[in-house]
Design a protein that fits this description.
heterodimer; A: 242 residues; alpha/beta; six-stranded mixed sheet; 7 helices; 10 strands; globular; B: 552 residues; alpha+beta; two-stranded antiparallel ribbon; 50% helix; elongated
């Protein structure tokens, strides 16, 4: 039901490719090198876990893939096209249309209801006139997603009225409503108890298997990482294939 | 689209931001009220000045004026053409007015204006400002037999008799006064006879001691303020007691009194005059006008003749009405007399030709005629070194421009208040941006552009500005439209007069709400709110998404 297979390179090339990416942050007087040349790829409809200690650079890598930050060196390619050096307007657009993100702290907008939070990417995408033309369609889409995640009765609740698991499911619905090619999840179960977290992981697996959505899951927990097809271990800013 | 939605949500959930626009609201309300009141005052003043001055004043530079007003008026009509509706000649000279109140002579500095009683009311609103209804229809310098308004005819709202003293003014007052004066004189003569019989001859003329004694008796028996409504025995002689024989006066011939005949003040009057009401009365704290002199009283006026060098002559006149333009400058300065009498008294009539001279010709234009064009046409037709042609606006230029200036300065000052409110918005917006840092990161992670994020806060500022200015508009208009009611309440609460009609001469605070002024105020206030949100919006736009997401 979610169209995630558009734009797949017929040559069978990877959907996402990270080549020799380096990133350093200013830390006090010196520079802290977080990523020291990471090579990494995600095949279409793949499910990759990135595992590593706290501070190993896994979140930074996710931010680079999600175009929230730019690498100091190296390249990021999406479906064969280099995306890390695009002008900011194109990057904003790409982030909106091709990439969905889920965070550990849910990151819902507190002023908006569950439904409005899910609609947020479409609100960002459409201009006012376009929005009014496609409002009904977008709303149906968002409601269907929330329905699928068992949130039918929670459409008009504000985030603070929802439980952690519910908030994370709203966040996943928000990441999916724009029909992205790639879902980036940063410790999505980190704030949840084991059972609820397991439910979230089940949802992600199902999205991967049933809808063919490519997923990158960042976690520090090996048991969670094992749910993915492939595990990439990040140690001190470098990839250690498991 | 998210910009609008989030603006709206922030507006509804961040009430603290509304606190910052209260100052915008107050500033806007104050500006609207002040502008409305100032415009009301300016308009009231302009219309009064205009009413007093006629449209165009044609005058000579010299005090002795120019000869043959009839010829001048024909010339003016030829130059002005159809635009001229009416004309009237006037003679104006500085003079001194003297009248007696409770035995004391009160001098006033005045402008004595000779007017043509038939045509003067046609060129200005002069007629509207008189106190007798018949004089308002057609001015007469003859004393009326009572019937003066005790209610101010120019106020529309309060039907309260603020001038009870005018009740008996006119001939009844004059007869009563003359009777009382005769009684005083009789008694004085008896006293004098008794004194002379008792103490023998005393030095001094017969007149002075008489006055002293009259004053002494007055001081014992008279109440504080002279009113015609008071019982006759309490009424003091409010004007000079005229001796039956005329004093040495070169212009006696102009009087109703003739040689060889006794002037009877109870049935006859001197030349009528209409003084400004401010010369003759004052308003007490309860809003009642107290009169020092009334129609029917006689006064003395000293004025210069038209000879070279001018000489001062003194003449006696009878008050027949009061002039009240509600411009205190005029009401306490102008005294109107019949123009022929003044011309004769000043020697302005050429003995050879019999042609009079006048100082100026007042011109009224037909409605819709352009003031400045007609003025310029007249200026071209007459030599500028002899005649001055000015419109009523030119005449009151300094006053009108002072009012304009006052309004401009007030507006600048009040706009500063709104600008200060802008800084409040700036500070609160910075706080909101900090508070919303994580949300800004979220929006950016969803693909919102920096411009879009900035747009949220700019739009927020715009909304707040609109809300603040809108509330200010409502408040300002509410205050303006109910300002007189509010005044009453404030006066009732504090017990002090907020708007003293004895100072302003208006019984109500005049207001005019000008749509353009209001529009400018609103636009300015909204502009300031938007301008104040620019910096916080830029800061929000430049937040790094990763750092913003990490923010707690």
């Amino acid at each position: 039901m979610i169209d995630t297979k558009r734009g797949i390179d017929p040559s069978g090339a990877p959907l996402l490719q990270v080549r020799g990416v380096r990133k350093a942050y200013r830390s006090g007087a010196g520079m802290l090198e977080v990523l020291r040349g990471v090579d990494f790829e995600v095949e279409p409809a793949g499910f990759v876990s990135v595992i590593g200690q706290s501070g190993s650079g896994k979140s930074t890598l996710l931010h680079l893939m999600g175009l929230l930050d730019a690498p100091d060196a190296g390249e990021v390619h999406l479906a064969g096209q280099r995306i890390d050096n695009l002008p900011s307007a194109r990057r904003d657009r790409l982030r909106n249309t091709d990439i969905g993100m889920v965070f550990q702290a849910y990151h819902l907008l507190p002023e908006l209801s569950a439904l409005e939070n899910v609609l947020a990417p479409l609100l960002v995408r459409f201009s006012i006139t376009e929005w009014f033309r496609r409002k009904g369609e977008a709303r149906r889409q968002a409601e269907a997603l929330l329905d699928r995640f068992g949130l039918r009765g929670r459409l008009h609740h504000k985030p603070r009225q929802l439980s952690g698991g519910e908030m994370q499911r709203v966040a996943i619905a928000r990441a999916l409503v724009g029909q992205p090619r790639l879902l980036l999840a940063d410790e999505p179960t980190g704030n949840l108890d084991e059972e609820t977290g397991g439910g979230i992981l089940d949802t992600l697996c199902e999205l991967n298997h049933a809808d063919g959505l490519s997923i990158v899951l960042v976690t520090h927990d090996p048991s969670i990482a094992r749910r993915a097809d492939r595990i990439v271990r990040l140690v001190a800013g470098r990839v250690e294939q498991a | 689209m998210y910009t609008l939605l989030l603006c709206w949500r922030y507006l509804r959930t961040r009430w603290i931001a509304l606190a910052s626009v209260i100052s915008v609201t107050l500033g806007v309300a104050t500006m609207i009220v002040v502008n409305a009141v100032m415009a009301g005052f300016a308009h009231e003043m302009q219309s009064r000045i205009h009413g007093i001055l006629s449209d165009i004043v044609f005058e000579s530079h010299s005090l002795s004026g120019f000869q043959d007003p009839q010829w001048h008026m024909e010339e003016i009509r030829r130059a002005g053409g159809d635009d001229i509706e009416g004309m009237t000649p006037t003679v104006a000279v500085p003079a001194m007015l003297n009248f007696q109140v409770r035995g004391q002579w009160v001098p006033r500095q005045i402008m004595l204006i000779g007017i043509d009683e038939t045509t003067h009311a046609q060129v200005s609103d002069f007629g509207r400002y008189l106190q007798h209804p018949d004089n308002r229809r057609q001015l007469s310098f003859g004393l009326r037999d009572g019937g003066y308004d005790t209610i101010d005819s120019q106020t529309d709202d309060q039907q309260v008799a603020t001038r009870p003293a005018l009740e008996g003014a006119g001939w009844p007052h004059r007869r009563m006064r003359v009777e009382r004066e005769r009684a005083w004189r009789q008694r004085q003569a008896e006293l004098e006879g008794a004194e002379q019989a008792g103490a023998g001859s005393r030095g001094g003329g017969p007149v002075r001691p008489v006055d002293h004694q009259v004053d002494a008796v007055l001081a014992e028996t008279t109440p504080a303020v002279a009113t015609a409504a008071a019982p006759p025995d309490e009424l003091p002689p409010t004007a000079e007691a005229h001796p039956p024989t005329a004093p040495l006066d070169p212009f006696r011939a102009a009087k109703p009194e003739e040689e060889g005949r006794t002037f009877d003040p109870s049935r006859e009057q001197f030349t009528g005059i209409v003084p400004g009401i401010g010369l003759a009365s004052f308003r007490d704290s309860s809003g009642i006008d107290r009169f020092l002199i009334l129609p029917g009283d006689d006064v003395k006026i000293t004025f210069p003749t038209a000879r070279t060098p001018p000489q001062a002559v003194t003449d006696t006149f009878t008050i027949v009405d009061f002039y009240e333009s509600k411009m205190s400058e005029y009401d306490s300065n102008f005294v109107f007399v019949p123009i022929e009498q003044l011309e004769k008294a000043r020697g302005m009539i050429d003995p050879q030709t019999g042609l009079p001279s006048v100082n100026s010709i007042q011109i009224r234009l037909r409605p819709g005629a352009d003031l400045d064009t007609v003025r310029d046409r007249l200026r071209q037709s007459f030599p500028a070194d002899m005649y001055a042609v000015s419109s009523w606006k030119d005449k009151q230029g300094p006053l009108l421009s002072a009012v304009d200036m006052e309004m401009a300065v007030l507006n600048i000052l009040l706009f500063m208040i709104v600008a200060v409110a802008g800084f409040g918005i700036l500070a609160i917006f910075f706080m909101i941006v900090v508070e919303k840092t994580r949300d800004i990161g979220i929006l950016k992670s969803l693909g919102a552009s920096s411009a879009g994020v900035a747009g949220i806060f700019l739009g927020y500022g715009l909304f707040l500005g609109l809300v603040g200015a809108g509330a200010g508009l409502a408040l300002g208009l509410g205050i303006t439209w109910n300002i007189n009611r509010i005044r009453t309440v404030v006066e009732w609460c504090t017990g002090e007069r907020v708007f003293d009609p004895s100072i302003y001469y208006f019984s109500r605070i005049p207001t005019i709400v000008d749509a353009w002024t209001v529009a400018w105020i609103i636009a300015g206030a909204v502009g300031i709110a938007v301008a104040a949100s620019v910096l916080p919006a830029l800061r929000a736009a430049r937040l790094h998404p990763v750092e913003a997401l990490r923010h707690d």
